[in-house]
Design a protein that fits this description.
Blueprint lengths: L2 E9 L2 E10 L5 E7 L5 E4 L3 E5 L12 E7 L4 E11 L4 H4 L8 E7 L5 E7 L9 E2 L4 E7 L8 E10 L10
Parallel strand pairs: 4-6
Antiparallel strand pairs: 1-2, 2-3, 5-12, 6-11, 7-10, 7-12, 8-9, 8-11
Length: 171
């Protein structure tokens, strides 16, 4: 006869993993681990805000795929700034593919729905520049593979009015 024990971890409103231990009467434990991709997606539409990788400042888990959709008013753009940025940086497990393991991908979406890449970042970066969209929609995607985990990242964003033209004043 077996007993089951479940450990479900919920962070930022999403279930990330479940561990199931089946124990026999002889106290032998067989572990089964599932990675659940239920929802790791957020829509952010405040004038400013913050978000982070799952479990930050502790290490994120393997097999994570998360997305933050940031939307500003139509006449605004989005400025994104990272504080801590520490992702997997083991070249032997990632091969020659730059950002082939764990990464953050940042894109902007046009009014027509076309996506443009603003940057793809990986490893540990001590100081990322402020990333600014030219549209009112930004999509930040985080992916981790199956090998190594790290602290992750935290980020903040703010929306600012879009400059539509320059006015030159002559003396």
């Amino acid at each position: 006869m077996y007993r089951t024990h479940r450990d479900v971890r919920v962070t930022q409103g999403a279930v990330y993993s479940m561990l199931l231990c089946l124990k026999s009467l002889k106290d032998k434990c067989n572990f089964l681990h599932w990675q659940l991709s239920i929802e790791c997606k957020w829509n952010l539409n405040q004038a400013s805000g913050e978000f982070s990788s799952p479990y930050f400042p502790s290490n994120y888990h393997n097999f994570q795929d998360c997305q933050w959709n940031i939307t500003a008013p139509r006449d605004h753009v989005i400025r994104l700034q990272f504080g801590v940025f520490e992702l997997e940086s083991n070249p032997s497990s990632c091969g020659n593919n730059r950002c082939g393991c764990d990464y953050v991908d940042i894109r902007q979406e046009s009014l027509k729905g076309d996506l443009t890449t603003l940057g793809k970042y990986c490893a540990t970066i001590s100081s990322l520049p402020i990333i600014q969209s030219s549209t009112n929609k930004m999509i930040v995607t985080f992916h981790s593979d199956h090998v190594v985990t790290a602290k992750g990242f935290n980020a903040s964003y703010t929306t600012v009015p879009k400059l539509t033209g320059w006015i030159l004043l002559a003396n």
